[in-house]
Design goal:
Elements: H1 17-21, E1 27-32, E2 35-40, E3 50-55, E4 58-65, E5 68-70, E6 76-77, E7 86-96
Antiparallel strand pairs: 1-2, 2-7, 3-4, 3-7, 4-5, 5-6
Length: 105
C-alpha cells in the first residue's frame, strides 16, 4: 500500500472553461459573432439580467427591465408583444474571441 504523500494536499486542479464559468448540465454554450456566450437555462431571470431570446425568427440578447425586454437597439418589448418571444436562458458569461488574423510570411 505505501505512504500517502502530503504533497497531494497542494496539487492544483487544471483550469478549464467549465470550472471558470461554472458550466454544468443547465448551461448551453453558443457561438456568437464575437466569441461564445454561456446561457444558464435553470436561473430565474430578474430585472437587469441579459437574456437570450428568439424574436421574429432570430436569436438576440435583451435586457430585462421589470416586465419589459429592452433590445440592443433600445426598443422596449412589453405587453402582448411578449407572446411572440421565446426566452432560452440567462446570460452568465461571455467569452470573446481573440485571434490574430495577420498573415505570417
Amino acid at each position: 500500500m505505501g505512504f500517502v504523500s502530503p504533497a497531494t494536499d497542494y496539487v492544483e486542479e487544471r483550469l478549464t472553461i467549465d470550472s471558470l464559468c461554472g458550466i454544468d448540465g443547465n448551461c448551453r454554450v453558443i457561438e456568437t459573432s464575437c466569441g461564445w456566450a454561456v446561457i444558464n437555462v435553470a436561473i430565474n431571470a430578474s430585472s437587469g439580467d441579459t437574456l437570450l431570446v428568439t424574436m421574429d425568427g432570430r436569436n438576440q440578447f435583451v435586457k430585462l427591465h421589470g416586465q419589459a425586454l429592452i433590445t440592443e437597439d433600445g426598443e422596449a418589448i412589453e405587453g402582448d408583444a411578449l407572446d411572440d418571444v421565446t426566452v432560452h436562458g440567462v446570460l452568465t458569461h461571455t467569452l470573446n474571441r481573440a485571434s490574430d488574423d495577420r498573415e505570417i510570411v
